[in-house]
Amino acid sequence: MHICCGPCTIYPLKELRTQGHEVAGVFYNPNIHPYQEYQRRLQTLNDYAAQAFLKIFYSEDYPLEEFLRQTAFKGDERCEYCLQQRLQHTADMALTGKYDGFTTTLLYSKYQKHDRIRELGEQISRQSGIPFYYQDFRVGWAEGVKISRELGMYRQQYCGCIYSEKERFYKESRSRKELL
User: pLDDT at position 62, please?
Assistant: First the structure.
């Protein structure tokens, strides 16, 4: 299962295990910026994974430069590369590890492009030959948030990329917009 962060892991992991799936996590998120944010999310996930007895795979590599090269000047289309890259990496890991399929915690977030994530997962599945497991985990949003707060987990306020960080904090002034 591709994992974006610890809090988003809670509900999908519970659901998958309830259905009898053995789950391993893949933390691959070169979109997360700055590096301290990346480290904080990884540490939060590792702390939760230890409690939940979840094996996590992650690369020591942090290919931010490639992410920026592929997303610069793409506007809202930048998400397409980001989603595709992370799902493809997870599918490749699943094939290499001889897993039965792959999925993602991105299907849990009510802020992500849910339908597009499903389409990309199914497309990668057809191309690679490894099944994509689809489930709408958003139904457990409130439950996951509640549990993550009870556990005192770090909960980020943006998807992780430099563009979403700007959208979160920078609000263009009206007078500046009028000049453009």
Answer: 87
